[in-house]
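This section describes the prediction task in plain terms. A model, or a person checking by hand, is given the sequence of a single protein chain and must write out its three-dimensional structure as a string of C-alpha cells. No templates, partner chains or ligands are provided. The sample shown here is typical of the held-out split.
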Amino acid sequence: MEEGPSLELCIAVWAEVGLSAERHATLDNQAISISDNRQDSAVGREALKDVIKDFRDTPAEERPRRIGVLIKAFQAEVDALTRRQAFAEDAFLNLYRPLADAPDPHASLLAAAAEIGRLRPEAAAAAAAAEGLRRELAHIDATGGGDGENE
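The expected answer:
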C-alpha cells in the first residue's frame, strides 16, 4: 500500500480548505455568475457584429462620422470581456489557493479504510464479549448470586 501524508495532516489541511455549506454556496453562486457572463458575452458579441455590419453597410463618405460608434462598441466589448476574465480568474484563484498545498487524501483514506477493515473483526469480537458479560451480570443480579462482599 502506498504511503501518503498522515491522516491527521490531511484532516488539518482539508479543514482549512473548508468545503463547508457556505463555501459550496459561494462556488454555486460563482458558477451561476460565470454561466451568466458567458451568455452576456455571446449577446455582446452579437451586438458587436451588428455594429460592424452596420458600419460596413455605411457609405464610405459617412464612415468617418460613424467610427466613434464602432470604437465605443469595441471598447464596451473589451471592457465586458475584461470584467468576465477578472471574475473568472478571481473565482479560480479563490478555489485554488486553499487547495494548492493540500495533500492528496487518497493514500491516507486508503490507509484509514484498511485500518478500519483490520479493526472491524476485533470491534465485533469486543462487542460480543461485552454483550456476553452484560447477560452474565444480568443473570447474576437476577439470581441474587452476588457474594455480598462488595455491597
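For orientation: The radius of gyration is 34 Å.
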